[in-house]
Amino acid sequence: TIQLKGKDFLTLADYSKEEIEYLLHLALELKEKQQSGERYMPLSGKTLAMIFEKPSTRTRVSFEVGMVQLGGHALHLSSRDLQIGRGETIADTARVLSEYVDAIMIRTFEHEKVEELAHYATIPVINGLTDDDHPCQALADLLTIYEVKGKLQGLKLAYIGDGNNMAHALMLAAAKVGMDCAVASPKGYEPKEAVVNEAKNIANESGATIVVTNDPYEALVDADVVYTDVWASMGQEAEAIERMHIFAPFQVNETLVQQAKSDFMFLHCLPAHRGEEVTEGVIDGVHSYIFQQAGNRLHAQKALLVSLL
Ligand code: CP
Ligand code: NVA
């Protein structure tokens, strides 16, 4: 049986295929309960602290609403208002919050910060996005793909764009569940080599293939899932104009997606910039599942909260 109580959720690399499948099935159950109006409050009296060093719409709202629906409570803590902003250490913050709350979700810059927080906290720590990973989004993405395609193993996901946190999270997620993954990025903007190697190792076990290329057409051939993300992530605002030129050939548009399977699904973690990384025609077209995808953040994270807390 699967036992995740007390575990951190820093990256999908730390979770087995079986644990991920367990979370996905639980998410489907919780979604059904929610949609049929059935109350389910196993986290009554529990509190989640949410630390944000970057902005958020989906992560903040879905975690807070998720805790409420499960009978618990969530605290939104901006790093500006915490003593962290004045130099209190991550280690002390972790130990203090562990005295009050039942879990911590954190969105920050350096991935190492989240690891340090998890090391010193005596309660589960959930990664709500770092510069290197976004496992909550990838979990919701697997859920959405499973809902639409009815399976994960044997599908092909093509990620077109910056080799960023989303590219990393999706490569690891795909590798775990046996989904082929092709990432196409401009030269110099490929995903980190360490993550690519980790994903390839994981893929060896699941039978998936991981490909990194500079050619978006090659990556998209026969893709079941077409995914893109912003060209300048949070913290890279100063590079936005320069990136706009470099990434232009990687725009997911009507011509490019002709390479994909005729029934491909388009996903984007959002927020999106129409006319930059994706055209309006694609993101608002019949192949797009972006709002079902955003909605699934709630259900996937509720499964996570119920399992870890
Ligand atoms: N996709 C995502 O994490 O969105 P937010 O930045 O709005 O939380
Ligand atoms: N890559 C984006 C994802 C936002 C959810 C960023 O880090 O800003």
From TrEMBL:
Q: Where mainly found?
A: cytoplasm
Example GO biological process term? L-arginine biosynthetic process via ornithine
Its annotated compartments are: Cytoplasm
Catalyzed reactions per annotation: carbamoyl phosphate + L-ornithine = L-citrulline + phosphate + H(+)
**Residues annotated as domain Aspartate/ornithine carbamoyltransferase Asp/Orn-binding:** 153-307
The entry marks the following residues as binding carbamoyl phosphate, namely S56, T57, R58, T59, Q83, R107, H134, P135, C136, Q137, C269, L270, R297
Arranged from A to Z, the UniProt key words for this protein are: Cytoplasm, Transferase
Which of this chain's residues are annotated to bind L-ornithine? N165, D229, S233, M234
A Pfam family found in this protein is OTCace
Instruction: Show the SUPFAM superfamilies listed in the entry.
Output: Aspartate/ornithine carbamoyltransferase
Q: What class of enzyme is it?
A: transferase
Gene Ontology MF: a single term: amino acid binding
Provide GO CC annotations from the record. Answer: cytoplasm
UniProt pathway annotation? Amino-acid biosynthesis; L-arginine biosynthesis; L-arginine from L-ornithine and carbamoyl phosphate: step 1/3
Every copy of the Aspartate/ornithine carbamoyltransferase carbamoyl-P binding domain together lies at 7-147
Q: Write the Enzyme Commission number(s) for this entry.
A: 2.1.3.3
| NCBIfam families assigned | orni_carb_tr, PRK00779.1
Per the similarity annotation, which family is this? Belongs to the aspartate/ornithine carbamoyltransferase superfamily. OTCase family.
Known role? Reversibly catalyzes the transfer of the carbamoyl group from carbamoyl phosphate (CP) to the N(epsilon) atom of ornithine (ORN) to produce L-citrulline.
Name of protein = Ornithine carbamoyltransferase
